[in-house]
Specification:
It is a single chain. With 283 residues, this protein is α/β, with parallel strands linked by helices. The chain has ten helices and ten strands. The protein folds into three domains: 60 residues, no CATH class; 136 residues, Rossmann fold (3-Layer(aba) Sandwich), CATH 3.40.50.2300; 53 residues, Orthogonal Bundle (Arc Repressor Mutant, subunit A). 38% of the residues lie in helices and 16% in strands. The strands form three sheets. A five-stranded parallel beta sheet has the order 7-6-8-9-10, with helices on both faces.
């Protein structure tokens, strides 16, 4: 009587059938067609080791398991939207909440409401609807009261006076929300959060032009009415900076005699008689 033993090797491996007789000289019979003999199996099977044809366990080189990337920690940025338009505020907050790095809140565009919110909540960036601002006092208040908060003014167009005055008042960014895609707003928030300033090329030119302009210093009456012409205000500003008549003349491209005439006219309008009084009056 004979028996057979079958050793199954993983798919695409050979299968050897050995017929054992009563004696030890029983021949080995290999299954035909595309099956070749190999001494041992050295590739992994479903277990930690594999068996060769002689049923001896073969040690296998351990296969390194893929290391999963650890989740990257995201730094949350607390964003506050200050807008008097409820529809725009809701749309903007919904879009920002779709980004996992932002935590978003909304308040009405009012200094008192904003003050109450900031007293009990941490905020990193404030998005202010610039075209709805009656003035820029809110930005100045933020700069003085909460210097670590970065205000971004959302505007509809590049108005030169608004851009220059907003940056002067403390805005860290001017964003054209009607002309710029939403992903750029997210980048703007990240930039001002990191301490940078967000302006486009046109806005930067406005700032550079304003810096190159001759400064002015308004002299007004008790009712707020301007007493001097724009050129006279420039003369007062340069005098207040400590320039002599010759220095003022060189700065404005005028003669020293003309500057003296300007000063006499200014003294007469304001009701003073010296440069020192003029500076004190202007300040």
């Amino acid at each position: 009587m004979a028996y057979c033993s079958v050793l199954a090797i993983p798919p695409k491996r050979e299968v050897i059938v050995q017929i054992f007789g009563h004696d030890s000289t029983s021949p080995k019979v290999a299954l035909p067609v595309d099956i070749h003999h190999q001494q041992s199996v050295m590739t992994p099977t479903s277990g930690p080791c594999a068996f060769g044809h002689d049923m001896n366990m073969k040690n296998l080189r351990s296969v390194p398991q893929p290391v999963l990337d650890e989740p990257t920690e995201i730094q949350l940025i607390q964003v506050l939207i200050a807008d008097s338009g409820p529809i725009q505020s809701q749309l903007l907050s919904r879009a920002l909440r779709g980004r996992r790095e932002f935590e978003v809140a909304t308040v009405d565009l009012d200094t008192t409401v904003l003050r109450n919110f900031l007293q009990s909540n941490h905020v990193d960036v404030v998005l202010v609807a610039g075209n709805h601002l009656p003035d820029l006092s809110l930005l100045r208040w933020l700069r003085v009261s909460y210097p670590k908060i970065a205000p971004v003014l959302l505007v509809e167009n590049d108005d030169r006076e608004l851009v220059v005055n907003a940056l002067r008042a403390g805005a860290k960014g001017i964003f054209l929300f009607t002309q710029t895609p939403f992903p750029m707003l997210c980048k703007c928030i990240h930039c001002v959060f990191d301490g940078e300033v967000w302006v486009n090329n046109q806005q930067m030119n406005y700032v550079l032009d304003a810096l190159s302009d001759v400064p002015t210093l308004r002299v007004v009456s008790s009712t707020g009415r301007s007493l001097l012409t724009p050129r006279e205000e420039q003369v007062v500003a340069l005098v207040a900076d400590g320039l002599t008549n010759r220095g003022v003349a060189s700065e404005l491209g005028l003669s020293e005699h003309t500057i003296k005439k300007y000063l006499l006219r200014i003294f007469d309008k304001v009701g003073i008689s010296s440069r020192v009084e003029l500076v004190l009056y202007a300040l």
